[in-house]
Design brief:
The protein is mainly beta. The chain contains two helices and 24 strands. A 13-stranded mixed beta sheet has the order 1-2-5-8-4-10-12-14-16-18-20-24-22. Strands 6-7-3-9-11-13-15-17-19-23-21 form an eleven-stranded mixed beta sheet, with no helix packed on it.
Length: about 280
């Protein structure tokens, strides 16, 4: 284990600086036996979560904790109380960072780098931190705030939600996708037959395959919407915007039919552009 001792500069609160608070950081690692679980839940706070896979049945966790104190000794004492724990209930494993006994979730946190068994689904719940998958996962579900989400999905339903952060999703799944954020852009590339992408104060950009079929809804405010297809889309398009225009570059799209494939777009203070066919 290794300590990194840094002065804490909280620009949003001069009181902490005047009180001379100190930040201590501690690196540690943990190994958990997954026992053939199908879903792994992660619950943490105030730090990035990074996930990858391996052929091992064990879960490897590298943690970087931080905690503060009025003195160096107090900061060290606080960070030494940080840990990662796990539990299994049926086919579900939960990996969590417990709330600090003294600080709760204030001026304390953990960044986690997790290596999980291949094929497990993930359910990530954190706050004030980004989430990134370095491998493809089935049925990813992610909740965070004040952080970005970057996910690759291999199959199953996808549910992503954050605020004050971007969403970047590449999906091989044809099942339902829901991605929502505020104050951040959304990028999506995939073949879902039913997707809903919502943001505010951010753009939405998606890429669809030529044989895409389904229903898609894109909604933003104060942002542009751009749709690209590597072939010719066989669907209809409807939408509305203010202070912007809706333009289709490429072959004429189909007339609206509620029983057929359809893209619906809504934005304000932004334009909508759809490129398909040879118009890329």
């Amino acid at each position: 284990m290794r300590y990194l001792l840094l002065p804490l500069l909280l620009l949003s609160s001069c009181a902490f600086v005047l009180n001379g608070r100190v930040r201590a950081e501690l690196e540690d690692s943990f190994t958990f036996t997954s026992g053939g679980v199908n879903l792994i839940k992660v619950e943490t706070y105030n730090g990035k979560v990074e996930l990858s896979t391996s052929s091992s049945s064990e879960v490897e966790c590298k943690a970087r904790f931080y905690a503060t104190g009025h003195t160096l000794e107090e900061a060290e004492e606080n960070v030494n109380q940080m840990k990662v724990v796990s539990s299994i209930d049926g086919d579900v494993m939960t990996i969590s960072v417990p709330r600090h006994a003294r600080l709760g979730t204030n001026n304390v946190g953990a960044a986690l780098n997790l290596t999980l068994p291949e094929g497990v689904a993930i359910d990530i719940n954190t706050a004030n931190g980004s989430v990134e998958t370095l491998s493809a996962f089935p049925s990813p579900k992610v909740r965070t705030s004040n952080g970005s989400i970057t996910v690759t999905a291999s199959s199953g339903q996808v549910n992503l939600r954050t605020s004050n952060g971007s969403i970047h999703l590449v999906s091989q799944s044809t099942e339902d996708i829901e991605a929502k954020t505020s104050n951040g852009p959304i990028y999506y590339s995939g073949d879902s037959n039913d997707f809903e992408l919502r943001t505010s104060n951010g753009s939405i950009r998606i890429e669809l395959p030529a044989d895409w079929k389904g229903q898609g809804y894109l909604d933003t405010s104060n942002g542009n919407i751009e749709i690209k297809c590597d072939g010719e889309l066989d669907c209809s398009l409807s939408g509305r915007t203010s202070n912007g225009k809706i333009r289709v570059y490429g072959p004429r799209l189909k007339e609206f039919d509620e029983t057929d494939s359809h893209l619906k777009v809504d934005t304000s203070n932004g334009s909508v552009k759809l490129h398909h066919g040879t118009e890329q």
